[in-house]
Hints:
Blueprint: H1 4-14, H2 20-24, E1 27-30, H3 38-51, E2 55-58, E3 72-77, H4 86-98, E4 103-107, H5 110-114, H6 118-131, E5 137-141, H7 149-161, E6 166-168, H8 181-191, E7 196-200, H9 206-215, E8 219-222, H10 225-229
Parallel strand pairs: 1-2, 1-8, 2-3, 3-4, 4-5, 5-6, 6-7, 7-8
Helix pairs in contact: 1-9, 4-6, 6-7, 7-8
Amino acid sequence: MPSQDLMDAAARALAAPVTARSVAGIVDHTLLKPEATPDQVSALVADARRLGAYAVCLSPSLLPLAEANGIAVAAVCGFPSGAHHAEVKAAEAARCVADGVDEIDMVVNLAFATTGQYGAVRAEIAAVREAATPPVVLKVIIESAVLSDEQIVEVCRAAEAAGADYVKTSTGFHPAGGATTHAVELMARTVGGRLGVKASGGIRTADAALEMIAAGATRLGLSGTDAVVAELPAD
């Protein structure tokens, strides 16, 4: 069981008692393995419903998803490398929207980010935003473990300027690593509550999840949701 101090810090961030249900309620229950099958997707949706997860997050080829029934559906775009032309990302997002998604999680071009081409980052996010207009939610994956603090700040600013709804730490596929509390704190401070912050990548325990929430994460991307919420008190 997580420490009481950590539970209290997360409760303040959630503005609610920390329970299995309250944490699950901000989770994107995720299945992004390339070999994922339709049967595994059906099991994912059933698990998300049982756990009370906010959304499921899938690869575009697994859409449309007829059985979501009240659970939000997110799909990734430009995943996992981000090294796609902006128009390709936009076309992929448009196809996902046509297939009924509620949310798009797009990966930025990391070469643009690491070489200071923040205008190009903003332009590609704007292209995807144009293809996936509100009420579709747009999350921008910045692969924070690859970036310096300055680059994290500038890419978050580009995401906000381009009309994104969330900034997101990681794909979970990059060898540099996944979410860290430092990155989440920096991202949350940069967007100042105007955008949400999704922590994703390597979050496998309740302690890790609560640390991300206390640092400012307003959404979590988890593939092992069951194991995380099992460590938390019941409602």
